[in-house]
Amino acid sequence: MTSPLIVNLEKVLAAGRDDALLRFSLGNEYLKLNDPAVAAQHLNQAVSHDPAYSAAWKLLGKALAECGRLKEALNAYQRGIEVAEKKGDKQAAKEMRVFARRIEIRLSEQK
After folding, report:
1. Which residue stretches of the chain have pLDDT < 50?
2. How many structural domains is the chain composed of?
3. Can you state the angle between helices 54-66 and 36-49, rounded to 10 degrees?
4. 81: domain CATH number?
């Protein structure tokens, strides 16, 4: 299943444009369609293009968590917290701390 927006974004990507915003947008749309694995691929590319993109780190953590890749999700949130704090994005850092703590609890329960 796909959406018209994803089709258009994929066309832009196929035409040679590849940047953090495009990948973030694709990741966000795939998350909306409940396809976290594909979302994570695009969001990984987003943070590769722009390592200071705190919103992309936050969504990457969410996508990885939804895939069950909890350690990777925790790492993404921790990196996102660092980025957000450097940028002064206190709200994003606060949200990612909450998500990271939830994952830490889940990981500790698995032991």
Report:
1. none
2. 1
3. 150
4. 1.25.40.10
